Amino acid sequence: MIEIKWMVPLLIGFFLAGCGPDTIVVRPGLDTPSLHVANGYQLLERGKADDAYREFKRAKELEPYCVEAYVGLGVTLGKMGDIDAGMETLAVAERIAGTAREHEAVQEGYAQLNELKRTRKDRDQER
To answer: What integer pLDDT is reported at residue 7 of this predicted model?
Structure first.
């Protein structure tokens, strides 16, 4: 009987401790600009522009001079219908680009936005 008296409070304590809020553990390796950029492009390919925008924006927050984040944001803005804002974002990427690969990525972004512009213009002319 004495053993049961000690077990009940102990079990209640374990039960209450198990009902507390979950601990959120941030894994540094999962919150990197390159991972967010990669996720953004995967989401963009699936047509999830809003989610892609958030990923590219997070990459830019983590690394303010991340050219790939600006390129992704520019292309995403274009796909969301705001080609002018996309072009402005690519202009920022072009200003901060330092390597040949970064300049190439900016040019690829401009090519995508120009293609979107042509497609929309053709579609508007058909109407």
So the answer is: 61
CB 12 within 8 A of CB 41: no
Q: Residue 56 is encoded by which pair of tokens?
A: 């590219």
Q: Is the pLDDT of residue 28 over 80?
A: no
Say which residue the tokens 């401790």 belong to: 17
The whole-angstrom separation of Cα 110 and Cα 92 is 12
Give the fold, CATH level 3, of 30-126. 1.25.40
CA 18, CA 22: separation in Å to the nearest integer?
9
Q: With contact defined as beta carbons under 8 Å apart, do 119 and 82 qualify?
A: no
CA distances from 37 to 7, 20, 60, 107 (A): 52, 34, 9, 17
Q: Is the pLDDT of residue 60 over 70?
A: yes
